[in-house]
């Protein structure tokens, strides 16, 4: 898997956008960027993934830079329930995920 | 929305005992996985399973571990002789061929005393 680098922790005010960065400078041309989150030792939850175009779904948006060496996950209106560890993963295969330490996002009231 | 389920939610066992953790995958998913997470540490891949055989396994998945799909629905992880260091959350995940992502179950907390 391509190595990813994320800040260990971030805070965000409730109702504001949370922007979580991820560096993946060794990503290959056909590797996707996946984002998962884990709320307090629950099972990891898929959020979104992308290859090179920006993606949006009901949970979040994913912005991938043109050179694909970094990406940003955006939660447009963070709520207290979004407090979790967020993982950026660039797997060799969707069939095996390697989790790093992720970013602990704390949404503050 | 279909979900992966796991039983039990919490298992307490004595060191040296055998445990079996169970997972019911999403019905049309054909790839199955076990991951574990020791308290305060990263989620670690253990094994992947497809077409009734192991596809990949990590260094953690030694001879004490085994997986099977005994009845075509459940997917199980057996630890033959538990050690204290096996205490962890164990997550099952499933993936649909041609799908985009793995779906994780809620986990089983294994405590070895």
Computed CA radius of gyration of chain A, to the nearest angstrom: 13 Å
Figure out the total of helices of chain A: 0
End-to-end distance of chain B, in Å?
37 Å
Poorly predicted runs of chain A: none
| Share in helix of chain A | under 10%
Radius of gyration of chain B: 13 Å
Low-confidence sequence ranges of chain B: none
What's the total number of strands of chain A?
9
The two chains with the largest interface, and their residue counts, are: A-B, 18 and 25 residues
Strand content of chain B: over 45%
| Number of continuous helical runs of chain B | 0
Mean pLDDT of chain A: 93
What string, H for helix and E for strand, traces the elements of chain A in order? EEEEEEEEE
Chain-averaged pLDDT of chain B: 92
SSE order of chain B: EEEEEEEEEEE
Q: What's the total number of strands of chain B? A: 11
Features:
heterodimer, A: 109 residues, mainly beta, five-stranded mixed beta sheet, four-stranded antiparallel beta sheet, 9 strands, globular, B: 113 residues, seven-stranded mixed beta sheet, 11 strands
Write the layout of secondary structure elements.
The complex is a heterodimer of chains A (about 110) and B (about 110).
Chain A: E1 9-13, E2 18-23, E3 33-38, E4 45-50, E5 55-56, E6 61-64, E7 70-75, E8 84-89, E9 103-108
Parallel strand pairs in A: 1-9
Antiparallel strand pairs in A: 2-7, 3-4, 3-8, 5-6, 6-7, 8-9
Chain B: E1 5-7, E2 10-13, E3 19-24, E4 31-37, E5 43-50, E6 53-57, E7 65-68, E8 75-79, E9 88-95, E10 102-104, E11 108-112
Could you explain the architecture of this structure?
The complex is a heterodimer of chains A (109) and B (113). Chain A has 109 residues and is mainly β. Chain A is built from no helices and nine strands. Chain A has a five-stranded mixed sheet with strand order 1-9-8-3-4, with no helix packed on it. Chain A has a four-stranded antiparallel sheet with strand order 2-7-6-5, with no helix packed on it. In chain A, strand 6 (61-64) and strand 7 form a beta hairpin. In chain B, 35% of the residues are buried. Chain B is mainly β and 113 residues long. The mean pLDDT of chain B is 92. The radius of gyration of chain B is 13 Å and the shape is globular. The A-B interface holds A 34, 38, 41-46, 49, 87, 94-101 and B 4, 31, 33, 35, 37, 42-45, 48, 55-56, 89, 91, 93, 95, 99-107.
């Amino acid at each position: 898997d391509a190595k990813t680098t994320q800040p260990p922790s971030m805070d965000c005010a409730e109702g504001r956008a949370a922007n979580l960065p991820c560096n993946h400078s060794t990503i290959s041309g056909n590797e996707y960027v996946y984002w998962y989150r884990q709320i307090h030792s629950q099972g990891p939850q898929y959020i979104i993934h992308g290859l090179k175009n920006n993606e949006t779904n009901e949970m979040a948006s994913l912005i991938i830079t043109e050179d694909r060496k970094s990406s940003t996950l955006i939660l447009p209106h963070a709520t207290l329930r979004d407090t979790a560890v967020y993982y950026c993963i660039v797997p060799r295969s969707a069939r095996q995920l390697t989790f790093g330490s992720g970013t602990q996002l704390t949404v503050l009231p | 929305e279909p979900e992966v389920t796991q039983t039990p939610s919490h298992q307490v066992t004595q060191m040296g005992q055998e445990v079996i953790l169970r997972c019911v995958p999403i019905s049309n998913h054909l790839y199955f996985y076990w991951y574990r997470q020791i308290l305060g540490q990263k989620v670690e891949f253990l094994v992947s399973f497809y077409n009734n055989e192991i596809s990949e396994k990590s260094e953690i998945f030694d001879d004490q571990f085994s997986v099977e799909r005994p009845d075509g629905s459940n997917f199980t992880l057996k630890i033959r002789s538990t050690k204290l260091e096996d205490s962890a959350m164990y997550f099952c995940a499933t993936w649909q061929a041609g799908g985009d992502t793995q779906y994780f179950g809620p986990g089983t907390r294994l405590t070895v005393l």
